[in-house]
Amino acid sequence: MNEAYFLNTEKAAACVAEREPMQPSPGFIKTLRGMQEAGMVGAADSARQLYPQWFENLSGSDADEIADIFAALSPLRLIEQEHGFGAALDLDHPYVRKLAEWDQLGPERRRNSLTYQEHVRSR
After folding, report:
1. Where does residue 102 rank: exposed (0-12), middle (13-18), buried (19+ CB within 10 A)?
2. Entry pTM
3. Of 3, 54, 97, 121, which residue is 20 to 30 A from 12 by alpha carbon distance?
4. Averaged pLDDT for residues 23-35
5. Which residue, 22, 84, 16, is CA-closest to 48?
């Protein structure tokens, strides 16, 4: 996981203060793909809000991949709307495990994910 995404608040604050458009670090599309695979709907949506100009200026295969990532997040977003924030998380995914290790997952997201997984298994 790109730890800079979670930890680089100092750089973010500096960019906002200087009114420079923020640019994600190299490999950010791969990080977004990992978020999608992990069911991290909120994190991916937050990333989109954090770098609006970067997303708007994408073209070619990068734009196609971003479109694919956010299309794959759409059904996960519906799961979270129905079952609560975090319900779509894959608790076994390395990104999510790292969040839990850093004590950033929170009890509500974990509970919603476990409840949704039980709901799916009970069908």
Report:
1. exposed
2. 0.79
3. 97
4. 93
5. 22
